[in-house]
Amino acid sequence: MIDLRSDTVTKPTPAMRRAMREAEVGDDVYGEDPTVNRLEERAAEITGKEAALFVPTGTMGNNIGAKVHTEHGQEVICDCRSHLLNYELSMLAWFSGCVARPIVTADGILRWEQIHKEVRAVNPHSAPTGLIEIENTHNMAGGTVYPLEVIEEICDGAHESGIRVHMDGARVFNAAAATGTSVREIVARVDTVMFCLSKGLGAPVGSMLAGPKEVIARGRLYRKRLGGGMRQAGVLAAAGLLALEESPRQLPEDHRNAKLLAEGLARIPGIGIDPAKVQTNIVIFEVTGTGLAPADISARLREKGVRINGISGTHMRAVTHRDVDRAGCEQAIETLAEVVHSRSLVSAGG
Ligand code: TLP
């Protein structure tokens, strides 16, 4: 199976499995798991933050990130297609008691110019702004990357207004690989960053939330409240450490494969995509012109050994990662071309 549904499908490498088997462990709720402690220290070092917290998922990391910066009854400014708003079961409302103030963007990238118009102070009518959330890379906008100066402008503007910034950096290592900038530089001015070990970096489980010591200490209590106190989690952290040290070097290859995929898809009649806009490992394309719905294309691809999901009634998303190589991507293009071609033969009565 060529599985391009997401980079979350990556399986742990043999080296990760070995490290997991041999991991030194302890009870992490007591702070006694040496491997978790090492992972948290490394994540803090790499992000240039005072501290980091190992959480089971990106969703938990984002929501603890939102919680530590906000109070009930505030607003969180984010892009309208953000993961926080659309794919986290309204945890922002349920857990943090905040309302999202979504901003429509063409490319998922917020600019201070748009944000500052939405910042609200306490007044008798509106909920005050508690947080700005930016997603880098932006998943549903097609893996787009924040230019460094845009992040800096947002953070400087936010901080002058007394507002904090959280980065959903689930794929911030992809942003780093695409721009040749270190993760540390990318996240230097944001107050907290969440990044995932379990996507392109290939660990089986886990994400990190990094930020100031005091904030992470409060985050640790929220993690426990949410049921995320993981005891001998060193078996997971061991894979996470390898993901941090070894996996980033794979990402440029994933990006080249995404470009190849996009160029191949652009040649298939009825598929809409501009390969020039593909910056990292996410390829979003329109299929309306094929006369097939995304769900039908998905089902037909699956019969032929390729998995790609629809993300709406008109668009599909393919995500490259290290478990699908260049030949796999070429095969995926060919299979999609066959599916679309057989449909056009049917509609032409051929
Ligand atoms: N993204 C998943 C799905 O939930 C859509 C995927 O397949 O891409 N932030 C971003 C930007 C994400 O893309 C995701 C997962 C998360 C947060 C949440 O991470 P997990 O799945 O670990 O909770």
Task: Give the helices and strands as they follow along the chain.
Answer: EHHEHEHHEHEHEHHEEHHHEHEEEH
Please provide the count of β strands: 12
The CATH fourth-level homologous superfamily of the largest domain:
Type I PLP-dependent aspartate aminotransferase-like (Major domain)
What sort of overall outline do the alpha carbons produce when their principal axes are compared? globular
Distance between the termini: 29 Å
Give an overview in words:
This protein is α/β, with parallel strands linked by helices. It has two domains: 13-247, Type I PLP-dependent aspartate aminotransferase-like (Major domain) (Aspartate Aminotransferase, domain 2, 3-Layer(aba) Sandwich); 250-349, Aspartate Aminotransferase, domain 1 (Alpha-Beta Complex), CATH 3.90.1150.10. Helices cover 43% and strands 15% of the residues. It has 14 helices and twelve strands. Helix 7 (148-160) links the parallel strand 5 and strand 6 (164-168). Bound molecules: ligand TLP. Ligand TLP binds next to helix 3.
List the helices and strands and how they pair.
Elements: E1 2-3, H1 14-22, H2 34-47, E2 51-55, H3 58-69, E3 75-79, H4 83-86, H5 91-94, E4 99-103, H6 112-118, E5 129-135, H7 148-160, E6 164-168, H8 172-179, H9 183-187, E7 192-196, E8 207-211, H10 213-225, H11 234-246, H12 251-266, E9 282-286, H13 294-303, E10 306-307, E11 309-310, E12 315-319, H14 326-347
Parallel strand pairs: 1-10, 3-4, 3-5, 5-6, 6-7
Antiparallel strand pairs: 2-8, 7-8, 9-12, 11-12
